[in-house]
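Known limitations

Structure tokens in this collection are predictions and should be treated as such. Users comparing against experimental data should check residue numbering before alignment. To illustrate the layout, the record for Ligase-associated DNA damage response exonuclease is reproduced below. The input appears on top and the generated tokens appear beneath it.
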Amino acid sequence: MIHPREWMEVRSEGLYCKAGGFFIDPARPVDAAIVTHGHSDHARSGHAKVAATPDTLAIMACRYGEGFACQRVDLPYRQPMHWGEARVTLYPAGHILGAAQVLIEHGGARLVVSGDYKRTADPTARPFELVPCDVFVTEATFGLPVFCHPDPQREVEKLLNSLAIFSQSCHAVGCYALGKTQRLIAELRRAGYDRPIYLHGALMKLTELYEARGVALGPYEPVTPGNRKSLAGEIVLCPPSALADRWSRSLPDVIPAAASGWMQIRARAKQQRVELPLIISDHCDWPELIDTIQEAGAEEIWVTHGREEALVHYCRKLGLRARALSLLGYEDEEAE
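Generated tokens:
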């Protein structure tokens, strides 16, 4: 077996496969890129060639325009593609619509790059699939033992209970445009909420894309100058930044809420002036990270995107080889 240490390396642009001549989620434009999902800290425009799932390519076109890459390669889940001397297969990551793990096979070895992933059920994303491998490259956004995410339906019930008690208040929920907005709408529908949900204009385009890609979300409408004053007792979704500006203050008797895994940290909620924190994450919590690492069967773990040191330390205690990749250019702004 040729160990992946021989044919994978970290460059200034990001994680590079020498056997295939491509980067995975590069931070700058490159000749060839495999993109795990559509969040902007993973999916950039300007690459000469991009391979990704059809949903991720559609998201990138929606965000960056049809000319986001010179060449686009549709790579559906579980359909291997030979790229140079490597074989590449994408598997569902459970993170958002189109999110994928990247299995790279070369020299008798299997390496999996998780991208961002979660194990919790999500009505808007394909469920995570475990992929056995020799080396597992895992994210660590919530890579500390303090993070243990509750059932998202419990958090949705908190929102609906507040809406019932404060029935004349508009509940403005800060949530990111890609993934979190659509998931929160779907979770509200799963909880039986069938009223129209109102969206800040910045959330409309990607929500419409989700529906066009087959994700049913029920009735939603944009917030407009004409209906803004009549939204007492309604749920309004908006970018997190809108909670602190004049846009949200113009809503009737607004209760500011936010849906994020970071809402488990009370200081964050207080800092953002959130009165109703909803702990709904699109990433694994600590127990899910540990379970996945153990179930993947890899003898070596590479850690990136987040709390690298704690997870590396824990993996070594399990008797696994582990190292932090310390990639630059990746943030937790969109995908929490």
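For this record: The longest strand covers residues 86-92. Residues 152-278 form a domain with the Rossmann fold fold (CATH 3.40.50). Please report discrepancies through the issue tracker.
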